Amino acid sequence: MVTLVGQVKLLNDAAARSDFKYVHDFNFYLHGLLEALNSKLNATQKQDWAATFAELHGVIDQLDASSGRKHTEATQNSMNRLSAIVAQMEKRFQEMKQADPALSRRAETASTRRSHVAIIYAFVILNT
Known about the structure:
Elements: H1 2-16, H2 20-39, H3 43-68, H4 72-99, H5 110-126
Helix pairs in contact: 1-2, 1-4, 2-3, 3-4
């Protein structure tokens, strides 16, 4: 969840500066982040979150289409919707963690952090 929130903020910054190529290319990565997050949930949680994930995938697809067409207003509208949904998800996830402390994120190790950085750098290099 922390990674998703951070990546949406980066994407929002790119949309604000009308970097349509970055926004368009980044949508595939967002779909992957959602799938990774979904894979961490148990069966009951997957059912509870299914509508939210479906809505997010739809908004990401809209964002992909609008940024691909370089349509500023539609891109910003989709970004606003994406940001709102992720903010709601983050709040809901925090509530879940308070109800079940076992859901708390394990401390990130230095090697995990390096792996995340390497993936992001590879994505940036491949898309420039």
